[in-house]
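Per reviewer request, we include the raw input and output of the structure prediction for the construct analysed in the revised manuscript.
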Amino acid sequence: MASDVILETRDLWKEFHGFVAVKGVNLRVRRGTIHALIGPNGAGKTTCFNLLTHFLAPTGGRIFFNERDITGSKPADIARLGLVRSFQISAVFLHLTVLENVRVALQRARGRSFDFWRSERLLDALNGRAMELLDAVGLAPFAGITAVELPYGRKRALEIATTLALEPEMMLLDEPTAGMGHEDIARISALIKQAAQHRTVLMVEHNLSVVENLSTTITVLARGEILAEGDYASVSRNRDVIEAYMGAGHAA
């Protein structure tokens, strides 16, 4: 395994009652890059994410993170190794404040449990770092409001802040700009680019302009298999890729 490869799958398979969702996927993500996983609906992208973080168990194949075989590891153990994911649906504590959400993540990053009942004095010690993270994602002015009051795009920004609080070596982002307007897409794209300065990012993303602007490498899945891989210019001209997207009713 090359030393610049942070995440690798070898002949990864996932079958659901006779339906093969992921078929022999060999994925290699280079350290310090933004790597996009794209494809038409039903291509197996989110299933791959769930396999990488063991929210699903693979039917076959192996997964390596930093040359360590993590196949079969628990999701929490994988996160502790530095491989942390987000979800298509924003996963924040809606009835805690924005600041409290980040403090919860900081507790976990420092090896503590999610102690909501810890003394206010002890929790306040986390405020400085929490505010740094909120400022980095443009949420410092919203620190005192409950997360449920945030518009959708800012909830996703809060999720990125809580993910960064865990100090991951690699972030897996599942549809980070889904359902957003132009302004929010620009904001989240900038956050991803900023976050990638010091870590590796693997993202599933449908918005091809976001993929073009951010990605170093793109892997295209279709029917659970890798159809093509390369930079945006080469992938977007690939006849098989164009056919896969057009056949699914999408523009390539």
